[in-house]
Amino acid sequence: MPLQDFAGRTVAGIVDAFTSGKVAARDIIEGVLARADRAKPFNPIATLDADGARAAADTLDTRHKRGTEFGRLAAVPVSAKDLILTKGLRTAFASLTMKDNVPASDADAIAQWRAADAVLFAKTTTPEYGHKVLTDSRLHGVTRNPWNPDHTSGGSSGGAAVSIALGLGPIAMSTDGAGSGRIPAACCGVYGLKATLGRVPHEVPPDQFGQLTYLGVMARHPADLGAGLASMSRGHRDDPWSAAIGRTPFAWPSTGVADPIAGKRITVIRRMTGGYLDPEVEARLEAALAFLDARGARITEMDGREVDWKLDVARIILRANQIERFGEILKTRRGELDPSFARTLDEGDAIDVVALRRALTDRTLAYRSVQKLFGDADLLLTPTVATPAPLASQDQFAPLVVDGKPIGDLRAAWYTYTIPFNMTGHPAISIPFGQSKAGLPIGIHFVAPWYEEAGLIALAEAFDSETRASTLFPPGFAPGS
Fold it and tell me: pTM of whole model > 0.85?
């Protein structure tokens, strides 16, 4: 009997198929595992837990026979980035220094997904300790773009984005420290959401008050972002940001979202700092503006250079956090580290206390600058990144080259758009909106006021009704192929 392929199905569709008795959880998982095997050339999986997933599915099937109640993610195959702690399943942080690490407990967001009866089948690839926006590591190799393997998947949640694009489950848990969830989502043609600071508990980092990293969700269907977020938004007492708002977990479907476009004041920022913007990316941005205008949005445009985004602040805080956390590894095991990670830590080691103190103060100024923008806008719109995905051979510290010409440092030239909102805490989403002439996905990026994730998801649904991006698969991976 051929395996059943649930690629492309929504979370709600999978849950209904299982709970209604139309399909067994084991059959759903076997279909995903078969897809994971086919996906190997793109290398999205860091650790596959086929036995654990089968056992979890069998338990669900046994419970179904007994007539028990199920959670909102019943039998849904899910994956989690290899930076997120998973009980009994290797979490190596893509590092040779942690290659045998098996956590004794789950991150709380993972525990919530499990409690909702999701089936965790894999950890997805990331660069070592998630330190860059390209996904490759000495431990796991290079993760390649599913639309063209010569190009990068983006990072650092590259494996999550590739998995969703190739149909390995409807949702994946990502992390986002400066765009690490939204950037690969744009590169791979899927939806990527970074929620408001504190919406999802992230109780693991040692600095709970100064961290910039969020747990996020990637999905093929916009509504599945809501299903995933609603199932991981209960607060945790060890995360002060989530402790208060987590008393009322995010609800989806939301009843509080009217028309997500008509009448909305949208401020467009096509260049954050006046740098390069690929003509094909700009053309897709113009097409998005035409769609929004036709739907009744009130659009204005501003020069990003009018805002002091404090872009270097995030780098200083991230590097300082990294050297504090990994400084001993740098001293004692430098030879085992990816050279780019060692160089990243060297940058952190060079930061003095005055620069760090100034950066922490400037983070507040960045927040106030963005808050001021929302005095005249309901949404901000930017490209997600300045060009389609670079080559997989791109070096983190080398200039980005377009048409044979270097256009600047990768950080400054490519992904300035995502960085500020990790500092300010505002929710943001990358929405797939077409492809380049070379067939590489292009994403657009919306930012909303705090706690307005439901509006962003509804906005993504409106775009998907226009583009049908959720139905698009890389060559050879469409359902039934």
Answer: yes
